[in-house]
Specification:
147 residues; mainly beta; four-stranded antiparallel β-sheet
Length: 147
């Protein structure tokens, strides 16, 4: 499998892993000038790239937060995890949400999120009147205890 990257604009950077064992490929902001994400706002930041997973149609590109950006500055994808479907060929953009009380500036070339490739299962959907029994049953949020 190969991850094909098409640069759509000047300044676009090819996603890359920071270490040999990094799961994610860093996505970078492709901006002509800095963009301010005000406290509590969401701003769509372009990456200047489109992508294709060559030879693998049962996988998806998922956009996750960069842990340092989210934990230190409160900047993370607004939808928690972005989904880039296999057949999407448009520009990848990241809707970043500022959950902090301080404005945050994204500069051109900043690493803003990470792209992780994962398998996708698309089973046949069947309607049924019964599901198998389990010990948990219908126990929902918190039903298995705190630990």
């Amino acid at each position: 499998m190969r991850l094909l990257i098409k640069k759509l604009r000047d300044g676009a950077q090819v996603p890359r892993r920071q270490t040999a064992y990094s799961a994610g490929y860093d996505l970078c902001a492709c901006l002509e000038e800095p963009a301010v994400i005000r406290a509590g706002e969401t701003v769509k930041i372009p990456t200047g790239i489109s992508a294709e997973l060559e030879g693998e149609r049962d996988a998806v590109l998922l956009i996750y937060a960069r842990s340092s950006l989210a934990s230190k500055s409160g900047i993370a994808p607004a939808n928690c995890v972005g989904v880039v479907d296999w057949d999407y060929r448009g520009e990848i953009a990241v809707a970043l949400r500022n959950s902090s009380s301080q404005d945050y500036t994204v500069s051109p070339g900043d690493r803003i999120a990470q792209l992780v490739i994962t398998p996708v299962f698309t089973p046949e959907v069947a309607v049924t009147d019964e599901l198998s029994e389990t010990d948990r049953g219908q126990g929902g949020f918190g039903s298995t205890g705190r630990a």
